[in-house]
Amino acid sequence: MAMKNFSMKKLYYSISEVSRICDLEQYVLRYWETEFEQLNPAKNSSGNRIYTNKDIKMILLIKKLLKEEKYTIEGAKKILKNYNVGDDGAEKTDMNVVEVQKQKAGELSLFDSHQGSTETAVMEEGEKESDKMVEDLKELRKFLEELYNQLED
Fold it and tell me: What integer pLDDT is reported at residue 34 of this predicted model?
């Protein structure tokens, strides 16, 4: 059985193709559509999702933020707020903006180390519930570090 060649760009991809390309389950893609407003694939006349290269680039960025950089969904949403991907799939935002957004959302990452100044920024933005989340994540981080240290011994 021949493997499909994805090196050739297409205009539209099915959810099964995107699932294989991005190495994500289809239900994850559907869930992310409900969480991230930037991810909104069109539907064909049959009602099936049709993804563009722009959609795939956004999915890969979300995947990187959530799985590699360990951001929560809320943290990733804050980073993506000022992020724009053009129709050709090219990034249309200054990387400094993304880095600032990452720093502001840093307290929403389990393993990010720049905590202090970002907590102040979040409180200034009037997001009191984020303060509780930060405390919960600190507690969780401490627990995970202790567990990890026990495993090393």
Answer: 94
